[in-house]
Amino acid sequence: MNRLKIVALGLVGLPLAFGAVAQAETITIDSDTTIDADNSFPDTHLPYEVHVIDGDNHPTVVNMVPGGSIGCALEAYDSSTVNVSGGSIGAWLYSLDSSTVNVSGGRIGLELMAAGSSTVNISGGSMSHLECLDSSTVNVTGGSIGGVYAFRCSTVTVNISGGSIGGVYAFGSSTVNISGGSIRNGLRIRESGTVNVFGSDLNLTDGLLTGTLADGTPLAKHVDIFGDGQLVLHNNPEPSTLLLLSMGGISLLAYRWRRKRKTA
């Protein structure tokens, strides 16, 4: 893995309150790089914004490890891959175009955004919220997320099977699939958003969703549904029920076999 390679340096404007614009120092990386304690971009006189693009040997792979620091934003473009296992990003982590972002640790100060046809996999780390747009695919198996927002498009898919999440918000025509994890503040579904919940004994009564998720997590959360939003409950049989069904199937096959022998 190469040490840091900077191929471009410039200034970009960052929007602030009341229409003011702050300047950020832009650094572009187009070859495999490790961002660690010796190769970081903490805020100095200007916040740093790091762009990862494909170079000659694409896809570019950037690993951010414990000790690494980016003052403002880390943005993945083209088909690049960004792996975050530690360190801190002051504000934003963006996965754009057809890039892949894997987060297993570290801290993102504000937002992780998935857009374009990108793929984001979250198994650890922490962030204020996760925003999912366009035709992106997001898989959450762990980590701490203040809120998951899926909206503004018809093909975004979010799969949640673990982690600790403040709330889930499905807008537009997005699809959110929930089979595990802890959702602290419930669900909000509006427009044509769809939330599929997988588990057992799932029931919605007077806006309260109860039951057990597929990973065994108890569920008792409020659900708000507006417009054409949909909540679809997928109840799976208990293991004991599956055993009884399988035994019944075996008995039926044995009965048919014996009957066939008698009539032969």
Describe the structure.
A hairpin with a 4-residue loop joins strand 20 and strand 21. Helix content is 9%, strand content 54%. It has one domain. It is elongated and about 70 Å long. It has one helix and 22 strands. It has a 22-stranded mixed β-sheet that branches. It is mostly beta strands and 264 residues long.
Strand and helix order: EEEEEEEEEEEEEEEEEEEEEEH
State which percent range the strand residues make up. Answer: over 45%
Radius of gyration: 23 Å
Class computed from helices, strands and strand pairing: mainly beta
Number of strands: 22
| Average pLDDT number | 85
- The end-to-end span amounts to 72 Å
Molecular shape:
elongated
The biggest sheet, with number of strands, parallel, antiparallel or mixed sense and barrel status, is:
22 strands, mixed
How would you describe this structure in keywords?
264 residues; mainly beta; 1 helix; 22-stranded mixed beta sheet; 54% strand
Q: Which helices and strands, and how do they pair?
A:
Elements lengths: L7 E8 L5 E9 L3 E3 L12 E5 L8 E4 L4 E2 L2 E4 L4 E9 L2 E4 L4 E15 L4 E14 L4 E4 L3 E2 L2 E3 L6 E9 L2 E3 L4 E9 L3 E3 L4 E12 L2 E6 L4 E8 L4 E6 L3 H25 L1
Parallel strand pairs: 2-4, 3-5, 4-7, 5-8, 6-8, 7-9, 8-10, 9-10, 10-11, 11-12, 11-13, 11-14, 12-15, 13-15, 14-16, 15-17, 16-18, 17-19, 18-21, 19-22
Antiparallel strand pairs: 1-2, 19-20, 20-21
